[in-house]
Amino acid sequence: MVKPDGVQRGLVGEVISRFEKKGFKLTGLKLFQCPRDLAEEHYKDLKAKPFFPKLIKYITSGPVVCMAWEGVGIVASARKLIGATDPLQAEPGTIRGDLAVQTGRNVVHGSDSPENGKREIGKAFDALLRYYHLLNLSDMIT
Ligand code: RTP
């Protein structure tokens, strides 16, 4: 997922390009505003952390781009392409190492296991469908 700072800074193409150049296949792509309940569910393991309120405010502050990627070893490789959580610790050549300086504005999120990847893709794309359904626009996307 490209986080709000990455979308706002026009880095969506750059992130997609790095994954494509590595050899992975983009199989899903959605721009959407992450609802607060989904953000809280997504980061529920960090609920006790002092930065949790700031994190939720940040993730819901603007549109994000959710992506589904396929390929051999995609989860582990994506973590390497993305780099360490703190961009100042991330290696040059990684997305965070090249494009960010703050942990709280670190451009991208990557799933940490295939199971979580499936769950997160399901949640993000399902939330979008529910949102359209609420607006009675579901016929536009079916
Ligand atoms: P992500 O889930 O976003 O891919 O990041 P991650 O696995 O590299 O890091 P994680 O520990 O799961 O933290 C999730 C996100 O919380 C924000 N964060 N802020 N000290 C802080 O202010 C702090 N620590 C973490 C970051 O946006 C991090 O990506």
Automatic annotation (TrEMBL):
Q: Name one GO biological process term.
A: response to hydrogen peroxide
EC number(s) per entry: 2.7.4.6
Q: Which reaction does it catalyse?
A: a ribonucleoside 5'-diphosphate + ATP = a ribonucleoside 5'-triphosphate + ADP; a 2'-deoxyribonucleoside 5'-diphosphate + ATP = a 2'-deoxyribonucleoside 5'-triphosphate + ADP
Any single GO molecular-function term of the entry would be:
nucleoside diphosphate kinase activity
Residues engaged in binding ATP = K3, F51, R79, T85, R96, N106
Task: State the Gene3D superfamilies in the record.
Answer: Nucleoside diphosphate kinase-like domain (3.30.70.141)
Q: Where are the bilayer-spanning segments?
A: none
UniProt name for this protein: Nucleoside diphosphate kinase
The species this protein belongs to is: Ficus carica
